[in-house]
Amino acid sequence: MSIQPIVVGTAGHIDHGKSTLVKALTGIDPDRLKEEVERGMTIDLGFARLRLPDGRTVGVVDVPGHERFVKNMVAGATGIDVVILVVAADDGVMPQTREHLAIMTLLGLSRGLVALTKIDAVEPALAELAREDVRAAVAGTFLEGAPILPVSSVTGAGLEEFKAALYRLAAETKPRSSEGVFRMPIQRVFSSHGHGTVITGIPVSGSLRPGEVLEILPPGISTKVRALQAYGAPVDAVRAGHSSALNVADVDQHAVARGMVAATPGYFRAATLLGAAVRALADLERPIEDRTQVRFHAGTAEVMGELVILDRDVLEPGGEALAQLRLEEPVVVAPGDRFVLRLASPAYVLGGGVVLEESRHRLKRFKKFVIEELARASRSLASPRDLLETILVRSRPGLAGPADLATEIKRPVPETERLLHDLASQGKVVRLGAPPRWIHAERLEAALAKVRGAIAAWFEGEHAHREVVDVRELRRATGFAPDFLDALLGELERAREVRVEPGGLVRRAGGHAPLDPELEALIARLRTELASARFQPPSPTELAGRLGVPTKDVQRAIDAAKDRGEVHVIQAGEIVLDAQAYAAAKAAVVRNCEQHRSLDIPALRDELQTTRKFLIPLLEHFDVVGLTIRQGANRVLRRR
Question: pTM of whole model > 0.85?
């Protein structure tokens, strides 16, 4: 079976002959429920298949027309590419005609035609009046100028002409793209004897094959696809634009319901906060107020929530606004998804719009940066590359991996990586760190400026005598994660603005900073004391007593001398060795280990003429810096 990956859907008022027309076109009665047959009224969604003259098959979705079942109608409209607006010649345009037309417009449909049904029940003059009524109703909508074709499903009058127009429209309609990762809003769930649970729907993105793993959200049920059908026939794959049935393994049919989504694992998450662009219907009697209680329809889901208008006081009829939807239950959507809003009670259509983001927190009204970011997101929806760039611009300070970004834009990782390299070639994004990850060029410059500012601020005032800053101080000042800060410091080092030294020390470029003469003199006296003490040096407090200066001044001298490599500090600053003594101790440890195969501590202690109080901290320090390593009870040189 060759499938044209589009779906045709009906719309219109109750009892205007939608189901009868579908049966006349396809030979299939879409009313499958016993109650529908008994009452002669469509309650839930019906499905059929239409064979085009060239042999290809397209799907047909028949929706209920009664106002009580608008939620089912919206669920069926998900995935429709071409609409047949059905208007009975004996009734003309009715309330649900207008409501369905508004819903189809809000959902972004752009192609369709009008079936003027029941022409056998009226005089030709009345049928012509009904045609004029329809023409006035569709003015200004996507159906303005569309064919309005009289037809009788009872006598067959006009049926062949209608079929020809529909076939032509279906053939000309651009097939849905199968790009992106697989996602299918679930329309029906049932159990098939001998097969288990079957879920049906129209995939809105991606493709799927038997054996692949799916995730059913929001509950997060993992399952494997056993078999696939499209239009009642087994197929090797389904894709966006196919009316599909998925036989899934180890899933209780009672755990799955309409409104849930079957998707490739790892790309989608259930959300209760959504940033959105909203448009109000032009014929509303009054403006939509902030925090209006609404029914949110997206995909096959209907959820209660409130509409928070972010950039204006109220939303006037026909107006547009940026908003946040705060929902009572989680839904699974993606940026670019269209939705319909109805008033919570009484339930009538207010408007609709497009999802811009899955918000991580509540957005505040009239905040300039919030409005600017949502507006930028709105402008980027038409292009996955632009959307990717927008997400990187709006991301928190840090680096993002391709897998995380693929989740954000709902695209496979290889495609996301291609988009990243495309943006990099334009200088818009930069790859940093190990493993390499990505950041927008604007965010990188802002982050580098913050690090530069933190470095400059640290070396002012009480640290003016210092030449290095501990990276931990920069983490506290910037709030950046360790890996992100390391990547930024690497950029500054490549620009020769800093030098990153072992032990997490960052040195400014430009050599030694000049010190005041008093501090230089104190450092000279300090080094004299340490040189004479060799391997039994006085503590900073003892040095202060010997030198006759405050301890804080001694500590400043130690810090400055350490930065210049003139002394070494171990054991949390309590032991300070002159640089020559430190070098001699290091050489003695190497000779001792080479001579004895492992460190002979008594021999080393005798050679250095020191005590256990100083020797043990010194040896532990050499372990930390990588000169030696413990092997059981012994120390040996670390192999290079």
Answer: no
